[in-house]
Amino acid sequence: MKTIKLEMDFVEILCDFFITEGCSIFLEVPSMGQSVDLVGIKSNFIYVVEVKISDWRRAIKQCKAHEIVADYICVALYRDKLSKNLEVEIDKLGYGLVLIDKEKGNCFWRKLPVKNNKIWQPQRKQFEKKIFEKKLNGGFYAN
After folding, report:
1. Secondary structure percentages of the chain, helix, strand, coil, to 5
2. Helix 56-66 vs helix 84-93: angle between axes, to the nearest 10 degrees?
3. Where are the domains of the chain?
4. S-S: 59 plus which of 38, 50, 96, 103, CB 3.0-4.6 Å?
């Protein structure tokens, strides 16, 4: 298995995971002054994923900002043990949680995301334009 030292190492493995889930993948998509680590498109649904090697609280904070643009919101973590606080927060917010099996080097769903109903259509359209620009500029992985 490839050694994971940086978020980008983890992102590469996540791309493969979300492609096997049927998504087209876009990386570092701008959104309201931030950048979403990974965006997956599947059946016209938008999945946003914030990736962290550590500091899950920061991932949650970033995800909250994406609630107005994404159908499904996910946190991806590289860790063996999860704090009870993280699991409670993920459940409360309806976010998905993807973990990596450090021994096998593959990702798996720890918690599937719940469909988000907080989308604000004007901002969603802006986000879709940013995704389309990424596609035009070759910044995506097709499924």
Report:
1. 35, 30, 35
2. 10
3. 7-141
4. 50
Architecture of the domain made up of 7-141: 3-Layer(aba) Sandwich (3.40)
Residue with tokens 């910044």: 139
Name the token pair of 122. Answer: 């004007």
CA separation for the pair 52, 57 (Å, rounded): 10
Determine the residue type at 73: I
H-assigned helices in 35-110: 56-66, 84-93
- Reported as a single tens digit per residue, the pLDDT across 47-92 is 999 999 888 999 999 999 999 999 999 999 987 778 899 999 999 9
Number of H helices, E strands in the chain: 4, 7
pLDDT for 90-140, tens place per residue? 999 999 999 987 778 789 999 999 999 999 999 999 999 999 988 887 666
CA distances from 79 to 13, 65, 93 (A): 14, 24, 20
Which residues does 39 contact at the CB level (< 8 Å), separation at least 6? Answer: 25, 26, 27, 29, 46, 47, 48, 49, 70, 131
- Given a contact cutoff of 8 angstroms between Cβ atoms, the answer to whether 106 and 100 are in contact is yes
